[in-house]
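Full entry
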Amino acid sequence: MSRELPTVDNYAAIALAQTPLLDVRAPVEFERGAIPQATNLPLMNDDERHQVGLCYKQRGQQQAIALGHQLVQGDLRAERLASWQAFFSQHPNGLLYCFRGGLRSRTSQQWLADAGVEVARIAGGYKAFRQYLIDTLDQTAAALEQGALASWILAGRTGSGKTALLQHLPGAVDLEGLAQHRGSSFGGRAWSQPSQIDFENRLAYRLIELNAQPIRQRVFEDEARNIGSVHLSPPLFNAIKAGKRIVLDVPFDTRCQHILQEYVIEGQLEFGGLNAWMAHMQARFARIAKRLGGVGYTKLSHAFEQACIEQQATGDFGAHISWIAPLLQDYYDPMYDYQLKRHSQPVIMRGGAQDVSAFMQHISSVN
């Protein structure tokens, strides 16, 4: 190595700027979790990393370094360097990192410098940045619990349009969007959810963004601790749940139309057509069969199948209301009523979307 190359450790500034990041860790490390806005262009692939790690344990650091250079040389080195050059040509403000900000990122940084591309690496690497993001989650939980930040929960029956309204409220944190899941039995999307670590990192990024604003409220949709395959930490979940509650009231017919649009029309677009969407929905129905009871499950399944047949024959989505309405009445609404009784926090206000939005805008202006 030649002269010392630049490092940065202002993690908040990196998050706020949504800085593009080059992650030179192996793919297996990247898949477990990465910093938002990161692209994985590894110095070593999984097998090469495994070989070097084994050599390090058996023969020490110097032999492991030598093996690493032996494994990544010639055309392979040139190919990987070219991919990094292309990344920084597209993202001249980008940064790079490895796991600890050590040898892998320094090596990648030096190769780039030798090729005339000087970039900074993140001091402490992924490990230090990840710790900063974990600390952000913990500090937010503490601030909500202690009242330094005000927690508000947007509640309402399924199909009320809570997620759509949430996007327009000051201080909103869209947990479902970050989790890539709608948070219900039928909430799975056509794409996979992020890893638990990626979910936490994305959530921390959103909180950092809000912390840089003068807004002292945080608004969350009423969620269970588990959102599909990811979850909130107990301290953060408990702090959120202790917040003040607002209820979005929407007429039943409007709720049915919201479900039709979001889960049926948009759902079929997500899954690439009627057949793939049908298979997904039938699997979801099977998961709640016990709660529906034998008769209820058979009735809803039949209504669902008939609606799909009619849609296929006529192109009309309207027949799906025949199963949406009883699903809301017989499954979701009783479950909502039961959960509502268990909440100790009083409802501060309730109303339609315009009323809730106006109320939260007012709260934001006086805090």
